[in-house]
Task: inverse folding
């Protein structure tokens, strides 16, 4: 589950170990009884081994320190480690759930988004790419979410996700999953995602361009759409039909839609017959090696009794 993976992640960060957490290195300072900056007479020995918060932070930030954070560490790692220095009580127990507004758990083997995730009451961004999630129950998602990224999972059904979707969600990432149309198209409407600005459906198995566009047209705030990698992207009028059908769209498949392009495809949305679910593939065979050239065979004499040799070839394409 996601909760179990998060707890394992916290253990890996070692937020209770020096220079983080509460210990002899900062106990008197954090307890509020006295400060290492203002040592009273007779207290020198008690604070001899203690460090200031600034010195402890420097141990995390100085690349020459044995406790330095890796240069490629995520902002999430850095935030939790520094909070564990400045306010270790905030990363102890259930309080740690209130620290994060963004949670990134990539390639952690997560299969389930469990109800424990609701403890993240301030969470606005949830990144769960490259896991093993096939279904996700929206009742277990914090209502504060604005970004949900599920790229590179095995999601094939959106029904559970759309039962109680986060009302303020602005980005939904479902690229590289197993969505098939048209059964899933009905879940991509304003009824479920009234504030959606960005939608990534790339590299799934969506085939019904007309049906999908009819649903997406209800998303009044949608500005960024990614559909590349789906079979429907092979339709010759694919891009033009989308550009004309979704006039508020700004970016399609990571390419900006300019005024010239919108003018070029003006009126295409009123010609759905041009966007049939079929594709034309033109294959040109260049040089072939390893087979005889029929034109090089010597012509036999008319009265020759030798058998006539005929060579023919064919190429098979599998889709």
Result:
């Amino acid at each position: 589950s996601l909760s179990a993976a998060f707890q394992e992640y916290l253990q890996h960060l070692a937020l209770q170990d020096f220079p983080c957490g509460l210990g002899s290195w900062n106990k008197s300072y954090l307890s509020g009884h006295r400060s290492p900056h203002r040592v009273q007479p007779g207290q020198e020995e008690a604070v001899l081994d203690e460090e200031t918060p600034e010195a402890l932070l420097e141990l995390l930030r100085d690349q020459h320190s044995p406790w330095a954070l890796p240069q490629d560490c995520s902002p999430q790692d850095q935030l939790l480690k520094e909070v564990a220095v400045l306010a270790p009580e905030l990363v102890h127990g259930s309080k740690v759930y209130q620290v994060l507004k963004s949670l990134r758990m990539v390639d952690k083997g997560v299969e389930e988004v469990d109800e424990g995730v609701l403890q993240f009451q301030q969470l606005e961004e949830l990144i769960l790419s490259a896991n093993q999630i096939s279904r996700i129950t929206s009742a277990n998602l914090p209502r504060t979410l604005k970004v949900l990224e599920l790229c590179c999972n095995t999601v094939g059904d959106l029904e559970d996700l759309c039962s109680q979707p986060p009302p303020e969600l602005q980005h939904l990432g479902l690229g590289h999953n197993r969505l098939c149309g048209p059964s899933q198209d009905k879940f991509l409407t304003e009824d479920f995602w009234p504030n959606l600005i960005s939608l990534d459906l790339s590299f799934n198995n969506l085939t019904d361009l007309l049906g999908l566009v009819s649903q997406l047209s209800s998303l009044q705030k949608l500005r960024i759409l990614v559909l590349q990698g789906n079979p429907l992207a092979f339709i010759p009028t694919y891009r033009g039909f989308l550009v004309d059908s979704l006039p508020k769209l700004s970016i399609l498949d990571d390419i900006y839609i300019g005024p010239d392009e919108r003018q070029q495809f003006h009126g295409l949305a009123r010609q759905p017959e041009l966007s049939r679910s079929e594709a034309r593939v033109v294959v040109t065979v260049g040089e072939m090696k390893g087979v005889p050239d029929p034109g090089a065979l010597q012509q036999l004499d008319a009265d020759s009794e030798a058998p006539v040799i005929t060579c023919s070839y064919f190429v098979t394409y599998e889709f």
